[in-house]
């Protein structure tokens, strides 16, 4: 009767043994095989949809919106991966994550526009500052609350309160008028035919994909990455096997903060203008992307981000662009109802 | 298996299956529980005992098989529906409502209370108040029987582990179930309270004909109190019957009892 | 030269207190619904503003487009909101608390977007006007009566009285219902829903009822909010409204219906008071300061005193 999301029945010894077996046995291999078909299925579905749309709206529209979708999808993915990492390790849905993006965008503007530093330097500083913010909050807020055994409701409201504080703190200092980074937003490149992409947007995609690739390598190849995944799978088991959980949690915040920072700077560059509401308005899309990907899977969040970006942009072929965000929210709701464990259907034992 | 030996099964389970990911927690379990019996479920850790309980009471969704209560299928029914049909259960870690008083906990267990429905509240104001009074009397009587009456107005959170198990049992007795499943009733409980629990079990069976099915690890308790034993290992029922019979079975000894077999005899 | 000057003359105006009092009253009714869901059933309903919107829009549309009498429109609009509660609840209540929060926020956002893009039917961004003709008559009548005690020029007073009278009636009703067996089941669900299911109660049905009732409360808040500004427009029902409501909820105390009023009043006098401190800030920054305070309140209450002012520590056992 219980769905995977219903409140968990007492963890019996049987289920604890099962969890151990799951990790020890070739479950990793099993999961890869199980997810391969989903990847393939997803790609085929996307391709079919693209062809269908091409038939309805013409190849150019499909190609252009696909390009736009990949741009949006890149910074969605960056933001969503950060969310997923934090959720995986801490089981905390960080409602303030979107405002990390806003924070980064405004720090970048501070250095790039107000202090006239080159954009690359400003971006690096913004990313570092956001990572620092993330760690700062861990020390000041999250760790003490965890030690005190704060419940989900408390943490949820704290995250929301934090979001309000960051967002409005920024507005208090910088005002609500739209701002821009000093990036070239007019030059565009012609790809195939009349399909165009802005020079800045091309950089966004390239940098974003490189960053995502690095995160993938971090997670799969490095020791810290494996520890993060172990914690994400089963916190108690990881502790017992000697992993320094506090250190891993700290590193997770650094990575998540940095990714959010990068996402913020890139989205500011790609969209062209920022307001203090940037992150908050993106938050639900980031949620949608993470849920699509299975909330605690970083790889899933990556795919989810791209899928969501494409979905939102493709929708503009059929509906007024002002409904774009509604598509994202609707997708989130549909996913939560139909497949809360994401497209890649990871069975959770919690 | 056991099915053939049971003449009047109150609960019948056949080829029940539950998979978690790639592993079968319950792998084709079949068992019948005799009406009015006190049946124990034993087996090593990870055998699937609590999972079986969860499946049978509707808290986990089975992947295949048959579950029948009094001959009627309850396969994939919701937990509340199964409870209303007369099969109720306790939990390994007792789920008492700490933020409510002991008496309120008991009243919660009351069945057929129109005051629990919004329409009932509005349409039958006299009837539900009367039912509350009846339930209150029932509750105090049961609390007295379980020697918890002095705690009636205390928050349930102040009770000890053993007292909570007693409360959990007393609470579900308010609805007079025909079959009660106890998940490790003695675990973490003071032996004196544990013994009381066992005595209550026998008394209720004698008075009301209630059937009991309980998971237990303490072999001595099982051997002395159970009419029938069901042995599980690796998700299957590997033996079932009277204690004397089960004790002799080779596979049970192999799987589980080991040297305990000599101690218990 | 003083840096901080209070606009004391403004504070002395009854209008300020009445105006703030009306908003506080609207929030109190709104938050009664949140309290029922969060404090008494354990449901993280973050879409309450959406139900408010549905109630307000249904009322306005029935009056303006279908020419109904307000006396018929109000109950029907409330039923619409309750129906929305059921429609949202049936799929969403199966979800775990965090997911439910996300789903309800998303749902409320969608409702806002629909209202914005609804063309002439919903009035788009400009909203709907003119639905309050009947209320204006009532207001004039009340002012006439109040004139007999010398209060005939306090134009905000009628709505203030109606709002708080409504709140008190609803508070009374909820307190009574909470003490019934139905209320007992709800409280039990909040703490340990498996135990409740194991005792033969249909937990899902209770959660639906709780959500539908909260939606009704949200709708009532929506009517009063709209009457206050004689307008029904999308931005009034933003997600921020729900979060501000939560700030009032936790401040007053989770698990206390009376605390809802206390929390909302405190919150709103602080927020409205900010507007009267003459800070060298532009309007949008004052608004930012107000919301920043809301965020601070949320964080500080949850960190320092999660049970709020009137909540009890033992009852702070929300599942999750």
Quick gist of this model?
The complex is a heterotrimer of chains A (350), B (265) and C (320). Chain A has 350 residues and is mainly alpha-helical. Chain A is built from 13 helices and 2 strands, in the order ααααααββααααααα.
Radius of gyration of chain B: 19 Å
Strand order of the largest sheet of chain B: 6-7-8-3-9-10
Greatest chain-chain contact: A-C, 47 and 50 residues
N-to-C series of helices and strands of chain A = HHHHHHEEHHHHHHH
Beta content of chain A: under 5%
Describe what this molecule looks like in 3D:
The complex is a heterotrimer of chains A (350), B (265) and C (320). Chain A is mostly helical. Mean pLDDT of chain A is 82; it is low at 1-14 and 20-26. The longest helix of chain A has 32 residues, at 59-90. Chain A has helices spanning 13-24, 27-57, 59-90, 97-114, 119-147, 152-174, 199-221, 223-233, 235-240, 245-271, 278-293, 298-315, 324-338; strands at 188-190, 196-198. Chain B is α/β, with parallel strands linked by helices and 265 residues long. Chain B has helices spanning 49-56, 79-84, 102-108, 118-123, 125-145, 161-173, 191-208, 219-225, 243-248, 250-257, 260-264, and strands spanning 9-20, 23-34, 38-42, 64-69, 72-73, 87-89, 179-183, 211-215, 228-233, 236-241. The two termini of chain B are 24 Å apart. Chain C contains 14 helices and 4 strands. Chain C has helices at 8-12, 14-39, 48-64, 70-92, 97-116, 119-122, 133-147, 157-178, 181-191, 193-198, 203-229, 239-252, 257-276, 283-304; strands spanning 5-6, 128-129, 231-232, 277-278. A two-stranded antiparallel sheet of chain C has the order 1-4. Chain C has a two-stranded antiparallel sheet with strand order 2-3. In chain C, helix 4 crosses helix 11 (203-229), helix 12 (239-252) crosses helix 13 and helix 13 (257-276) packs antiparallel against helix 14. The termini of chain C are far apart. Chains in contact: A-B, A-C, B-C. At the A-C interface, helix 6, helix 11 and helix 13 of A face helix 5, helix 12 and helix 14 of C.
């Amino acid at each position: 009767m219980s769905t995977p999301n219903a409140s968990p029945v007492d963890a019996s010894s049987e289920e604890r043994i099962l969890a151990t077996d799951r990790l020890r046995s070739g479950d990793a291999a099993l999961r890869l095989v199980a997810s391969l078909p989903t990847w393939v299925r997803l790609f085929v579905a996307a391709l079919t949809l693209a062809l269908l749309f091409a038939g309805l709206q013409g190849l150019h529209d499909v190609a252009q919106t696909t390009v736009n979708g990949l741009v949006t999808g890149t910074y969605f993915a960056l933001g969503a991966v950060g969310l997923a990492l934090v959720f995986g390790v801490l089981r905390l849905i960080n409602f303030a994550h979107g405002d990390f993006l806003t924070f980064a965008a405004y720090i970048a503007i501070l250095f790039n526009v107000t202090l006239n530093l080159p954009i690359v330097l400003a971006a690096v500083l913004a990313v570092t500052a956001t990572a620092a913010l993330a760690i700062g909050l861990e020390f000041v807020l999250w760790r003490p609350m965890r030690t005190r055994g704060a419940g989900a409701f408390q943490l949820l409201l704290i995250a929301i309160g934090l979001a309000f504080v960051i967002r409005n703190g920024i507005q208090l200092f910088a005002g609500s008028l739209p701002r821009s980074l000093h990036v070239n937003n007019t030059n565009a490149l012609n790809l195939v035919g009349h399909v165009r992409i802005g020079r800045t947007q091309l950089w966004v995609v390239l940098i974003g994909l490189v960053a995502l690739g690095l995160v993938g390598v971090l997670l799969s190849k490095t020791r810290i990455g494996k520890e993060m995944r172990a914690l994400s799978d089963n916190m108690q088991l990881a502790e017992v096997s000697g992993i320094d959980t506090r250190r891993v949690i700290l590193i997770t915040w650094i990575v998540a903060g940095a990714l959010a920072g990068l996402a913020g700077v890139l989205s500011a560059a790609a969209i062209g203008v920022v307001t203090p509401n940037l992150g908050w308005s993106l938050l639900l899309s980031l949620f949608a992307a993470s849920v699509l990907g299975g909330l605690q899977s970083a790889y899933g969040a990556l795919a989810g981000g791209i899928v969501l970006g494409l979905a939102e942009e493709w929708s503009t072929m059929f509906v007024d662009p002002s409904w774009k965000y509604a598509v994202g929210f609707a997708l989130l709701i549909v996913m939560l109802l139909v497949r809360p464990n994401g497209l890649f259907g990871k069975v959770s034992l919690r | 298996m056991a099915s053939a030996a049971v003449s009047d099964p109150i609960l019948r389970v056949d080829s029940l299956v539950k998979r978690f990911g790639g592993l079968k927690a319950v792998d084709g379990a079949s068992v019948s529980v005799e009406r009015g019996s006190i049946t124990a479920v034993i087996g090593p850790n990870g055998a699937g005992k609590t999972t079986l309980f969860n499946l049978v009471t509707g808290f986990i969704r089975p992947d295949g098989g048959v579950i029948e209560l009094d001959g009627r299928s309850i396969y994939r029914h919701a937990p509340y529906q199964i409870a209303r049909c007369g099969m109720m259960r306790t939990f390994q870690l007792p789920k008492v409502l700490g933020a409510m008083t002991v008496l309120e906990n008991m009243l919660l267990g009351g069945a057929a209370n129109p005051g629990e429905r919004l329409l009932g509240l509005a349409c039958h104001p006299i009837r539900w108040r009367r039912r509350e009074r009846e339930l209150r009397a029932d509750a105090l009587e049961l609390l007295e029987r379980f020697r918890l009456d002095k705690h009636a107005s205390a928050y349930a959170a102040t009770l000890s582990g053993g007292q909570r198990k007693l409360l959990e049992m007393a609470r579900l007795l308010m609805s007079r179930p025909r079959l009660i499943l106890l998940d490790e009733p003695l675990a973490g409980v003071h032996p004196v309270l544990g013994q009381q629990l066992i005595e209550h079990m026998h008394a209720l069976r004698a008075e009301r004909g209630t059937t009991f099915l309980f998971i237990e690890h303490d072999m001595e308790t099982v051997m002395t109190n159970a009419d029938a034993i069901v042995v599980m290992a690796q998700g299957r029922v590997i033996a079932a019957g009277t204690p004397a019979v089960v004790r002799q079975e080779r596979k049970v000894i192999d799987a589980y009892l080991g040297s305990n077999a000599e101690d218990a005899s | 030269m003083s840096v901080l000057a209070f606009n004391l003359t403004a504070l002395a105006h009854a209008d300020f207190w009445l105006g703030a009092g009306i908003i506080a009253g609207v929030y109190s009714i709104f938050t009664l619904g949140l309290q029922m869901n969060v404090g008494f059933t354990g449901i993280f309903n973050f879409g309450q503003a959406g139900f408010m919107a549905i109630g307000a829009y249904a009322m306005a549309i029935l009056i303006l487009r279908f020419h109904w009498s307000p006396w018929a429109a109000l109950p029907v609009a409330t039923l619409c909101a309750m129906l929305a509660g059921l429609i949202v609840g049936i799929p969403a209540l199966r979800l775990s608390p965090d997911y439910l929060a996300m789903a309800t926020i998303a749902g409320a956002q969608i409702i806002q977007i629909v209202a914005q893009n609804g063309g002439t039917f919903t009035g788009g961004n400009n909203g709907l006007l003119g639905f309050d003709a009947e209320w204006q008559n009532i207001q004039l009548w009340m002012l006439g009566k109040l004139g007999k005690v010398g209060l005939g020029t306090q134009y905000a007073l009628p709505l203030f009285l109606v709002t708080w009278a409504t709140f008190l009636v609803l508070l009374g009703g909820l307190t009574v219902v909470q003490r019934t067996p139905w209320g007992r089941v709800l409280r039990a669900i909040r703490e340990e829903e498996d135990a409740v299911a194991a005792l033969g109660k249909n937990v899902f049905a209770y959660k639906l009822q709780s959500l539908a009732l909260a939606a009704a409360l949200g709708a009532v808040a929506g009517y009063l909010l709209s009457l206050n500004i004689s307008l029904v427009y999308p931005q009034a029902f933003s997600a921020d409204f729900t979060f501000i409501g939560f700030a009032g909820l936790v401040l007053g105390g989770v698990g206390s219906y009376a605390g809802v009023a206390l929390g909302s009043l405190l919150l709103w006098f602080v927020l409205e008071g900010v507007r009267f401190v003459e800070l060298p800030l532009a309007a949008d920054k004052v608004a930012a300061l107000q919301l920043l305070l809301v965020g601070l309140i949320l964080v500080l209450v949850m960190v320092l005193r999660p049970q709020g002012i009137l909540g009890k520590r033992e009852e702070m056992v929300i599942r999750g």
